[in-house]
Amino acid sequence: MKRGSGILLHISSLPSPYGIGTLGKAAYDFVDDLHAAKQSYWQVLPCMPTGYADSPYSGTSAFAYNPYFIDFDFLAEDGLLKKSDYSHLNFGKDETYVDYEALFHLKNDVLKKAYQPGIEKYSHEFAAFKFENSGWLFDYALFVVLKKHFHYLPYQQWDACIVDREPAAIMEMTQRYGQEIEIVQFTQFLYERQWFALKNYANEKGIQLIGDIPIYVSQDSAETWAHPEYFVKDGSVAGTPPDYFCDEGQLWGNPLYDWDYMREHGYEWWVRRMQRSLHLYDILRIDHFRGFEAYFKIPKGGAPKDGQWVKGPGGALFDAIKTALPMPPIIAEDLGAIDDNVKGFLDYCGFPGLKVLQFAFDEQDSFYLPHNYPRNSVVYTGTHDNDTTLHWFQTVQPETRKFLEDYIGRATESDVVGKLIRLAMMSVADISIIPMQDILGLGGEARMNYPSRALGNWKWRMKKGEFGQEQIKRLRTETEIYGRAGNGC
What we know:
Elements: E1 4-8, H1 25-36, E2 41-43, H2 72-77, H3 100-112, H4 115-121, H5 123-132, H6 137-149, H7 160-163, H8 167-176, H9 178-204, E3 208-213, H10 222-226, E4 237-240, E5 250-255, H11 259-264, H12 268-280, E6 283-286, E7 294-298, E8 308-311, H13 315-324, E9 330-332, H14 340-349, E10 353-356, E11 377-380, H15 389-395, H16 398-408, H17 416-426, E12 431-435, H18 436-439, H19 469-481
Parallel strand pairs: 1-2, 1-12, 2-3, 3-6, 6-9, 10-11, 11-12
Antiparallel strand pairs: 4-5, 4-7, 7-8
């Protein structure tokens, strides 16, 4: 990957008058700002539809898009909506936070109004979209419709004949809800139209889009319902042992893959997932990459203390992926418990791993310190799971702060964020990615996620105009100084 730098900002965090960031004008303005700052990359979080707790890392589908990101104003420009369909609605009072409850009750009802005029305008394109995505689209749309029919209960609590996908029961529901199913499919089509229009615009400006996929899907997802054969049957779930983020470990609750089944079928599902993801993004970050070498298995009803590491598919999975996708542009999120086996697996795959500066100063010769970086890596001040760098500095242990200042010189609350951004930019790592919260120098109120907290995450939003000319000019200057200027403007 070419030397460059970029910003981590999820679609949900863009400014918008409709409760959440969208693929609308603010996204294009942000691309223009990245271009002006001579950035090469825009990294987003997973864009799949979310379920309970609104986490993009526990989506209800591995293939579908989050309809919350569809822009109403663009649909109105296309003649699919009227401004009066949505301008009077209250999508939340605080422009700095997402109100997911308001979106849940309002957004899809507005999108339904685009269906009839949209079907008439895009009939041929929509038919092609359904054909190209037939491997997942119908199951997902049916899952969404059934979810509403069963009052949003987890699918495990639906009628047994539907849980078991008995053909007669599925046929009855398909006939009863035919139009509702097609509305969900059409909504996915609308997202894809807006996404690729934005992606093409970004690429023309010299900006590559870095996407992100979680290793797992939600326990309550279209995949677990439609394809239970992909998952283990003993009720064990994913999590982590005690680590930097949580002293007691984490019980994620995601179902674990049946890797024996996957191997017997040539890892076909994973190959399709990667093909689709790399169609959507220029570069793909895979979350919890170490889980492919060995995954942490927590028994049904157990706690993280009861878990154990179990061997995963390892290099065989990525051999299959590389056969279908030679030299895939993948970033391996290799944080967490990394032993020699994981290091060997990462070396075998050859993908760049992550270096996080907030982790660098807890020990004298940490591999997160810039002088230990290989070029084939991606450096962050912090990730979506970290605190903002300012609040991290305000709360860090005294011995960590002392080592930080031994390494970079005296630091204060007014200059430490800028110093760490420059440290990332000057490093030999091929790619430097800075969260927008750090670009803006924000405190703990702007933190995106607390890994040990189930609710209240993924809400932060940037105010309109907050990423202004002063920040753009400073970022452009540092990008040029450290040889990361990406688009020749």
